[in-house]
Amino acid sequence: EQVIVEEKPKIPPYELAIQELKALDEKLLWQNNKIKEYYSELTDILRTYIEDEFGVPALESTSDEIVKKLSRLHRKKQIIAPNETLNRLSKLLQTSDLVKFAKMKPLSDEIEEDRKDAGYIVDNIKRPAPEPPKEDSVETQGGNKNE
Questions:
Q1: What is the Cα 65 distance to its own chain's centre?
Q2: In which domain, by residue range, is 58 found?
Q3: Chain segment 92-123, per-residue pLDDT in tens
Q4: Is the pLDDT of residue 67 over 80?
Q5: How many structural domains compose the chain?
Q6: Cα gap 85→95, rounded to integer Å
Q7: Quick check: is 1 in a domain?
Q8: Given 65, 100, 134, 144, which is the most exposed site by the fewest CB atoms within 10 A?
Q9: pLDDT of residue 130
Q10: Would 124 be classed as within a structural domain?
C-alpha cells in the first residue's frame, strides 16, 4: 500500500517573515508587558529569515557575527545589504540582547521603532537581481575574433 503525502508549497522566506511579523503584531505581547518574549520572537523572525534566505547560520550566531557575515556577503556582492540596514539590524539585535539578558525595558515608542526597523530590514536585505543572459551576437558575427 502506497501512502501519498501532499506537500504544502513552501512559503518563500521573505513572505514568511512578513506574515510572522504581522502575526507577532496581533499577539500584543509588549502591550501586555511581555517585552522579553516580544523581542525574542521579533529577533527569531529576523534570524530565521536571514538563515533561510541567505544561508547565514543566524540562529546559532551571536548578534555581532550575523552583522559581520552579512557585511562580508554584501562586500562580495552576494547580497544587497546597505550600511543603514545593517546598522538598524545591529541596533535591534543589541536592544534585544539587553532586553533578554540585562532586563532592559525599552519605552513603547522605542519598541514601535524597533518593529518598524524589523520590517525595514526584511525589505532591504536581498539577493541581487540575476544578471540578464549575455548575448554572444557581437563575438559570433564577423567570423574571426582576432581582427
A1: 14
A2: 13-128
A3: 999 999 999 999 999 999 999 999 999 999 99
A4: yes
A5: 1
A6: 15
A7: no
A8: 144
A9: 80
A10: yes
Residue 111 included in any domain: yes
Is residue 123 within 8 Å of 76, Cβ to Cβ?
A: no
Q: Phi then psi for 126, rounded to 5 degrees?
A: -145, 170
All 3 cell numbers of residue 55? Answer: 544561508
d(CA 103, CA 96): 10
Which domain CATH number covers 106? 1.20.120
Amino acid at 112: E
Q: Buried (b) or exposed (e) across 103-123, using 16+ Cβ within 10 A?
A: ebebeeeebebbbebbeebbe
Mean pLDDT score of the chain: 90
Please give the pLDDT value at position 105. 95
Residue 142 placed within a domain = no
